[in-house]
Write a structure and sequence with these properties.
The protein is of the alpha+beta class. It is built from five helices and six strands. It has a three-stranded antiparallel β-sheet with strand order 1-2-3, covered by helices on one side. The chain has a three-stranded antiparallel β-sheet with strand order 4-5-6. The longest helix is centred in the last third of the chain and has 20 residues. The N terminus is likely disordered.
Length: 171
C-alpha cells in the first residue's frame, strides 16, 4: 500500500491499471481512486498551463560577510514593470524572496528549499525547488538557471504564480 500513498501524494504516476487491483479487491470498487487520480492529473495540467502572472526581468544582489544584502529587483506583471530596491534578509536568496513578496504583495512561508545540479561543468544548470505555504495551503515552485540565485528567484516566483492561479486571483 506504500505505492498508493506515494502516488496519491504526487510522487509517482499510476500508469498500469493492475496496480489498482489490491484496492479494488479490498473495497470492491475503483471509483474513489480513479476520481482522485483524474483530479490529480487535471491539477498537474492546470499548473503546467498556468499563465505566468509575474515574470523575472532582472535582479542585482550585493552581499557579504557581516553585511545586510542589498537587492534591486524588476518584475513584469502583464505589460507593467515593477521595481524595488531593498536592504534585507539573511543572504542573497532571502533578499530576493523578500523583494518578490514586496512587489507581488503575496506573503508566504518558505517550508523547503532545495538546489540540485542538472548538468555538469562550470556552466552547470542549477534546478531549485521551493515549497511555500500561503493561507494554510502548500505550493511548489521550480526554477532553472546557470545562476543559482536567479534559479532561486525563478522558483519562488513560480510558486507565487501558482498561488495566483489556484486562488483565481489576479494578484
Amino acid at each position: 500500500m506504500a505505492w498508493l500513498a506515494i502516488t496519491l501524494l504526487g510522487h509517482a504516476r499510476i500508469e498500469d491499471e493492475t496496480l489498482f487491483q489490491p484496492y479494488e479487491k479490498h473495497t470492491g470498487s475503483l471509483g474513489p481512486l480513479k476520481c482522485l487520480r483524474h483530479e490529480h492529473e487535471l491539477m498537474d495540467q492546470q499548473i503546467r498551463e498556468a499563465p505566468e502572472t509575474w515574470a523575472l526581468v532582472s535582479y542585482q544582489v550585493a552581499s557579504g560577510t557581516g553585511t545586510t544584502p542589498r537587492v534591486e529587483l524588476c518584475l513584469r506583471h502583464g505589460a507593467q514593470e515593477l521595481r524595488t530596491e531593498m536592504e534585507c534578509g539573511d543572504g542573497p536568496i532571502d533578499a530576493i524572496f523578500l523583494a518578490i513578496e514586496k512587489l507581488t504583495g503575496v506573503s508566504v512561508v518558505c517550508k523547503d528549499f532545495q538546489v540540485h545540479s542538472v548538468t555538469v561543468g562550470k556552466d552547470a544548470q542549477a534546478e531549485v525547488t521551493v515549497e511555500v505555504e500561503h493561507q494554510g495551503r502548500t505550493y511548489r515552485g521550480l526554477g532553472v538557471s546557470t545562476d543559482s540565485v536567479e534559479a532561486s528567484g525563478r522558483a519562488f516566483l513560480n510558486a507565487i504564480n501558482r498561488v495566483a492561479m489556484l486562488q483565481g486571483v489576479a494578484i
